[in-house]
Amino acid sequence: MRRIDDLPIFLDLKLHDIPNTVAGGVRAVLPMAPGLLTLHASGGTAMIEAARRAADEAGAHRPKLLAVTVLTSMNAEALHETGVAGGPASKCCGWRGWRWQPGRMVWCAARRR
Fold first, then answer.
1. Which of 11, 22, 31, 109 has CA 20 to 30 A from 55's CA?
2. In angstroms, rounded to a whole number, what is the distance separating the alpha carbons of residues 54 and 67?
């Protein structure tokens, strides 16, 4: 990971759009050499894969991509307002290995069956 002043750049942009646009956004920030870059996972698999391919263009200086699924500030009522019923746990548990723990999302190596 490249560093500026010995600190990695963390771009918390939560990119979310059509795959081609997000890939373009990732390419646009590559000259900044971010160590970490966030995407909004609700953009779907095709968007995340397009972002990964664009990030790979940085070679050895490729940023790590973090997919945000649910903002920790959102409770069940806020999620319901956006069309998500059942609260954070129902949105995330078992989805591609993610599971909900109070206040945060954690990655599970084994997918729940």
1. 109
2. 15
- CA 53, 55, 58, 61 dihedral sign is negative
Give the per-residue pLDDT at 55: 96
Q: What is the DSSP string of 49-84?
A: HHHHHHHHTTGGGPPEEEEE-S-TT--HHHHHHTT-
Percentage of residues of the chain with pLDDT beyond 70: 67
| Residue of 14, 16, 27, 99 with catalytic role | 14
Q: Is 14 part of the annotated catalytic residue set?
A: yes
Which tokens belong to 71? 């903002």
Beta strand pairing call for 64-68 and 36-40 = parallel
